[in-house]
């Protein structure tokens, strides 16, 4: 095991990639921001100048051929995740990949096989596992504090007003990129249980004018597990009161709740009533989780032991997303073994 900080290259300098880059540059002691890759070279240069990073490229081979680069953090558009991950792993670079790890199960299987063959970390960006409240809840479940899980719930409500263009967002994004976090959370909290049934309903209630285009911005999913537990996952693209991510597990001996739309437990009371400040961005509500997951990725490179979510976790979460799409298209529940 080495304690030398690892050299990481950001792949994809958009909103989330920029946040990862800032974390690596300023908040993670066991990693260096060695470089930035983006097809928009000017954007990459601007980010590099801001963060003091000089290795800027739009040529992927400059990364794989550089002997001093240990790994990459992939935050490119989802459709590129699997191919990029597989290519870097095959060329000796450890991979941290934002979710979803791929858009087909076959893609993730091939990438996981590449990681196994290379003996390199392949970590997926399911950041809720690294949030303190979610991690504490997981520990309580493992120690038996609430008995056997019976009912679970996970929700993601993006802050409003929603400013996205529904005519440019890929169909099924609500399952591929939003609810996939909730699916991973539910699988992780109900460990060692398999999903046997999936039922999804969805609609375009935020932007109903885009429904005929295939746009969906509200969804509710029910899951049945082989240990008897029943779970609900829900998502909405526009919660006007703030960014709301919560989960709950009701067990035979008690209950756990995690997540809070409020920034703190401070409430302001004035002539207009009671007020709470609420979260407005994912990079804020999970600030510590985003840092912890990259730190764990760097630890995995240093030690050779991965503790973060891997290809199998990505495969299971995507399998539920795909079952949701099948359920929407058929109007029926889908039998699974996930």
Automatic annotation (TrEMBL):
Which superkingdom is the protein from?
Bacteria
Domain annotation Gfo/Idh/MocA-like oxidoreductase N-terminal: ranges: 7-126
Family affiliation? Belongs to the Gfo/Idh/MocA family.
Record has Oxidoreductase as a keyword? yes
The cross-references to InterPro entries, in alphabetical order and at most eight, read: Gfo/Idh/MocA-like_OxRdtase_N (IPR000683), GFO_IDH_MocA-like_dom (IPR055170), NAD(P)-bd_dom_sf (IPR036291)
Q: Which UniProt keywords apply?
A: Oxidoreductase
Gene Ontology molecular functions: nucleotide binding; oxidoreductase activity
Q: Which species is this UniProt entry from?
A: Marinomonas rhizomae
The residues covered by the GFO/IDH/MocA-like oxidoreductase domain are 134-256
Does the record carry Oxidoreductase as a key word? yes
* Name of this protein: Myo-inositol 2-dehydrogenase/D-chiro-inositol 1-dehydrogenase
């Amino acid at each position: 095991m080495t304690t030398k900080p690892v050299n990481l290259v950001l792949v994809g300098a958009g909103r989330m990639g920029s946040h990862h880059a800032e974390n690596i540059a300023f908040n993670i002691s066991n990693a260096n921001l060695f470089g930035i890759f983006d097809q928009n070279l000017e954007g990459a240069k601007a980010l590099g100048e801001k963060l003091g990073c000089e290795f800027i490229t739009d040529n992927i081979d400059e990364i794989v051929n550089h002997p001093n680069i240990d790994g990459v953090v992939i935050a490119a558009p989802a459709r590129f995740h699997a191919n990029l991950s597989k290519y870097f792993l095959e060329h000796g670079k450890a991979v941290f990949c934002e979710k979803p790890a791929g858009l087909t199960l076959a893609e993730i299987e091939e990438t996981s096989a590449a990681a196994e063959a290379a003996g390199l970390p392949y970590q997926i960006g399911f950041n809720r596992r690294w949030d303190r409240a979610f991690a504490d809840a997981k520990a309580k479940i493992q120690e038996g504090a609430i008995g056997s899980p019976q009912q679970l719930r996970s929700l993601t409500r993006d802050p409003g007003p929603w400013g996205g263009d529904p005519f440019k967002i890929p169909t099924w994004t609500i399952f591929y990129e939003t609810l996939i976090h909730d699916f991973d959370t539910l699988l992780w909290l109900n460990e060692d249980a398999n999903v046997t049934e999936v039922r999804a309903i969805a609609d375009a209630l935020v932007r109903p004018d885009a429904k005929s285009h295939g746009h969906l911005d509200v969804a509710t999913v029910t899951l049945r597990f082989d240990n008897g537990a029943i779970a609900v996952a829900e998502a909405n693209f526009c919660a006007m009161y703030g960014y709301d991510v919560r989960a709950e597990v009701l067990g035979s001996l008690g209950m756990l709740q995690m997540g809070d739309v409020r920034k703190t437990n401070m409430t302001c009371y004035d002539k207009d009533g009671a007020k709470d400040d609420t979260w407005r961005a994912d990079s804020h509500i999970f600030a510590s989780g985003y840092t912890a997951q990259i730190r764990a990725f760097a630890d995995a490179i240093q030690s050779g032991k991965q503790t973060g979510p891997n290809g199998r976790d990505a495969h299971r979460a995507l399998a539920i997303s795909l079952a949701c799409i099948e359920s929407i298209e058929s109007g029926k529940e889908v039998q699974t073994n996930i």
